[in-house]
């Protein structure tokens, strides 16, 4: 039997851990404390998840109260009042008509794919294909991974599903050229493409590189012209993280379907959602309803009560607007760090979702450990958690603290990053 002890990713097989990780004992706000008593600033909200920070007293109270009432019923038999409340709140906050609750970002993307397929089946004109972008990440289930232009595809062998052919929109290529290539692809396969999938900012793969201005508006126009659906993967960008409820709002574009995840449960519960426009909802709701199969834990009473409380707080505290203000401060500070540290070669992002591109110290061999991972380790030693990208295309790190971070804490974050950069450069 093959041994899995050598698994490179420390979290891959939990009883055969390859590398020792610090053990977290407690967390509060932006602070994490390990079993040795060391403190860390959560500079990336886990993996751009903990929008409200950790152990928020109101959310902890909701968890306690809901756990004492009811935690699970199968949604085939029962609903819960929080489920309806959450669905309405999500719909109002995003302007999307229908809400389908699942448990992870990957499941939300899978549901988005299935809704798009079902939409065309209901119209009596099935369409089998999807287009997505090179250098993107959409999740770790087979359909979502097939959409992704991410290094993990290579681990599993290039996947057989006919996805992922659009050119890289994050490369700085002129928008007109990019859109001409999308048009050519749609013309090559008339009536075949069910959906065009995109990340508003390439998160896990590139480190917060936004789509170029004009591209998304162009995609919307092409989707309308060719009768295909526009599918936004807002798993990382949604729910206030970039300063809007949906990052697509920055470009004034409405998707037909949007996938949400991470910030919906904000680290308090696994929950995610696929949202659909009125047009898609009408078609699939009046049809065969094949999506109704769903997932066992989808929309369970505990998760929906928690997510509803998270969303209510996000809206009441105006965290999307706050993200814009704090993000401006953070981006200025990161640019100042870039002036001091030649290792930082680019700073970009939006709201409280920022990425830095990192150059290797001069003369270093390409075989050396990825610089993003080295900076992550140095930052950890200095009491700061950052998120290195995993796409394998460049070396970048994501800085995306909880939206509740204070000014003082932002300053601590920047000071600790400064110290880590100095260490790696020396
Ligand atoms: N889409 C995007 C844009 C993501 O960043 C991620 C997670 N990094 C996913 C989908 C998958 O989400 P999950 O890990 O919750 O399945």
Automatic annotation (TrEMBL):
Its cofactor is pyridoxal 5'-phosphate. It holds the Pfam family Aminotran_3. GO terms for molecular function: pyridoxal phosphate binding; transaminase activity. SUPFAM superfamilies: PLP-dependent transferases. InterPro entries: Aminotrans_3, Aminotrans_3_PPA_site, PyrdxlP-dep_Trfase, PyrdxlP-dep_Trfase_major, PyrdxlP-dep_Trfase_small. Keywords: Aminotransferase, Pyridoxal phosphate, Transferase. Belongs to the class-III pyridoxal-phosphate-dependent aminotransferase family. This is Adenosylmethionine-8-amino-7-oxononanoate aminotransferase. It comes from Halomonas korlensis. The lineage of its organism: Bacteria, Pseudomonadati, Pseudomonadota, Gammaproteobacteria, Oceanospirillales.
């Amino acid at each position: 039997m093959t041994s899995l002890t050598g698994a490179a990713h420390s979290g891959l097989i939990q009883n055969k851990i390859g590398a020792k990780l610090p053990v977290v004992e407690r967390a509060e706000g932006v602070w994490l404390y390990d079993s040795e008593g060391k403190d860390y600033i959560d500079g990336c909200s886990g993996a751009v998840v903990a929008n409200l920070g950790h152990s928020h007293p109101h959310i902890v109270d909701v968890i306690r109260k809901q756990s004492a009432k009811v935690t699970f019923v199968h949604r085939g038999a029962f609903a819960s009042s929080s489920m309806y409340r959450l669905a309405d709140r999500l719909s109002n906050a995003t302007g999307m008509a229908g809400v389908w609750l699942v448990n992870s970002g990957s499941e939300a993307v899978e549901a988005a794919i299935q809704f798009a397929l079902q939409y065309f089946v209901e119209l009596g004109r099935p369409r089998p294909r999807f287009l997505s972008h090179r250098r993107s990440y959409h999740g770790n289930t087979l359909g979502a991974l097939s959409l992704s232009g991410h290094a993990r595809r290579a681990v599993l062998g290039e996947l057989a599903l006919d996805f992922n052919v659009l050119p890289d929109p994050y490369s700085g290529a002129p928008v007109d050229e990019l859109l001409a290539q999308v048009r050519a692809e749609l013309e090559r396969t008339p009536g075949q493409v069910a959906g065009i999938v995109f990340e508003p900012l390439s998160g896990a793969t590139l480190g917060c590189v936004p789509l170029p201005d004009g591209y998304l508006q162009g995609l919307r126009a092409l989707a309308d012209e060719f009768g295909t659906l526009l599918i936004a993967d807002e798993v990382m960008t949604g729910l206030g993280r970039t300063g809007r409820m949906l990052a697509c709002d920055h470009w004034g574009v409405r998707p037909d379907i949007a996938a949400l995840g991470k910030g919906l449960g904000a680290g308090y519960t696994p929950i995610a959602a696929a949202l659909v426009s009125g047009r898609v909802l009408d078609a699939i709701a009046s049809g065969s309803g094949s999506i109704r199969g769903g997932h066992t834990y989808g929309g369970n009473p505990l998760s929906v009560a928690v997510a509803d409380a998270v969303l209510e707080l996000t809206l009441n505290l105006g965290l999307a607007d706050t993200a814009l203000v704090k993000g401006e401060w953070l981006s200025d500070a990161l640019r100042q760090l870039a002036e001091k540290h030649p290792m930082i070669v680019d700073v970009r992002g939006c709201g409280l979702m920022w990425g830095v591109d990192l150059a290797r110290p001069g003369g270093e061999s390409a075989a050396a450990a990825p610089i993003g991972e080295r900076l992550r380790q140095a930052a950890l030693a200095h009491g700061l958690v950052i998120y290195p990208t995993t796409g394998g295309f460049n070396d970048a790190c994501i800085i995306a603290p909880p939206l509740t971070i204070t000014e003082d804490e932002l300053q601590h974050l920047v000071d600790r990053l400064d110290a880590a950069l100095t260490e790696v450069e020396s």
